[in-house]
């Protein structure tokens, strides 16, 4: 505990991350529109797949899993930020704050796992096409997704387990919502150890999943180059392109933040929050759009739905 700091019993936290933001209502409305689009697009994607038995295949089950993760990731923090910006609701109760922290970090870890799982699906489909349906059945795909959720819960459970017992010296969180860094900084302890721990866990998860994706695509490229038919090659490239967009949208903002930090670039609190919000809502909106318009079966289903709707109906 830092000397001279008096502990206090915290029943609610004050979110102070947007105190100096100009035009908060306008920003909040933009976030509300984007968040609504995220939810509608992902729910539509899930409904398209769930209601069409022809799409009950491993790849589409993994797309549904990603859609659930995207909705959870956006919903973990967006309502809090939107309520603060538009209505000025700056307080959040003690228990909901920790729940928000857990759900936010769980969804972040699951984004990595879900994308890595989809890379594995593409690896099996392209490198072992004849054995694909025997290796990845629907049941095995569901078990894989469930196992990844459980593994993510194990990693993320470390966070509330280390921060809940700590004494608190302040109730104001200088972040956009309740996350691990904000809660640790509100305690009376030196945060260095806790930040080092979360850095190690983040590094392990981030680079292990990214390395697995790189390994998968290296094997995929080798398999594609061995194909004699140009038509087959083109089809395989098209199949992987949607997933590569998803990978880029998720990992690129993270690596940009890491590079900026390593270069010693000091960002203002507002700039950091802007990057974070973009990294949360951006991929969550782009992912369902990519799979709607880049996946032939889903695109054809949407086209059939709209061709059935006649003007004046």
List keywords for this structure.
313 residues, mainly alpha, three-stranded mixed beta sheet, 3 strands, globular
Characterise the protein shown here.
The termini are far apart. This protein has 313 residues and is mainly α. Helix content is 74%, strand content 3%. It has a three-stranded mixed beta sheet with strand order 2-1-3. The longest helix has 34 residues, at 94-127.
What quaternary form is this?
single chain
Task: Tell me the total number of β-strands.
Answer: 3
Low-confidence stretches: none
Helix and strand composition category: mainly alpha
Going across the biggest sheet, name each strand in turn.
2-1-3
Report the total helices. 11
Task: Report the span from N to C terminus.
Answer: 68 Å
Largest sheet: 3 strands, mixed
Strand content: under 5%
Bulk shape: globular
Give the helix proportion (percent range). Answer: over 70%
The pLDDT mean sits at 87
CA radius of gyration is 22 Å
* Succession of helices and strands: EHHEHHHHEHHHHH
SSE arrangement:
Elements: E1 12-15, H1 24-50, H2 58-87, E2 91-93, H3 94-127, H4 132-135, H5 138-156, H6 158-163, E3 172-173, H7 180-185, H8 192-225, H9 230-262, H10 269-294, H11 296-308
Parallel strand pairs: 1-3
Antiparallel strand pairs: 1-2
Helix pairs in contact: 1-2, 1-10, 2-3, 2-5, 2-10, 3-5, 3-8, 3-9, 9-10, 10-11
Short overview:
The protein is mainly alpha-helical and 313 residues long.
């Amino acid at each position: 505990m830092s000397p001279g700091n008096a502990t206090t019993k915290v029943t609610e936290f004050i979110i102070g991350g947007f105190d100096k933001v100009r035009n908060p209502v306008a920003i909040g409305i933009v976030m509300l529109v984007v968040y609504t689009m995220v939810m509608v697009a992902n729910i539509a994607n899930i409904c398209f797949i769930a209601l069409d038995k022809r799409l009950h295949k491993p790849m589409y089950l993994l797309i549904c899993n990603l859609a659930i993760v995207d909705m959870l990731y956006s919903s973990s923090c967006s309502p809090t930020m939107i309520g603060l910006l538009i209505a000025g609701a700056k307080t959040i109760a003690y228990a909901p704050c920790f729940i928000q922290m857990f759900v936010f970090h769980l969804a972040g870890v699951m984004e990595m796992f879900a994308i890595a799982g989809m890379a594995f699906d593409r690896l099996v489909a392209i490198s072992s096409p004849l054995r694909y349906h025997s290796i990845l059945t629907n049941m095995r795909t569901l078990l894989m997704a469930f196992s990844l959720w459980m593994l993510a819960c194990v990693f993320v459970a470390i966070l509330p387990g280390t921060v809940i017992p700590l004494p608190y010296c302040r109730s104001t969180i200088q972040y956009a919502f309740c996350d691990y860094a904000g809660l640790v900084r509100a305690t009376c302890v030196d945060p260095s150890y806790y930040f080092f721990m979360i850095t190690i866990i983040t590094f392990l998860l981030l680079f292990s999943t990214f390395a697995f994706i790189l390994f998968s695509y290296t094997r995929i490229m080798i398999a594609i180059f061995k194909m004699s038919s140009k038509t087959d090659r083109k089809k395989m490239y098209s199949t992987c392109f949607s997933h590569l967009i998803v990978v880029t949208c998720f990992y690129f903002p993270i690596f940009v933040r890491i590079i900026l930090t390593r270069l010693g670039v000091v960002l203002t609190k507002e700039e950091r929050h802007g990057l974070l919000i973009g990294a949360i809502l951006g991929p969550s909106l782009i992912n369902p759009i990519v799979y709607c318009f880049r996946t032939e079966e889903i695109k054809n289903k949407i086209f059939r739905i709209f061709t059935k709707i006649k003007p004046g109906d």
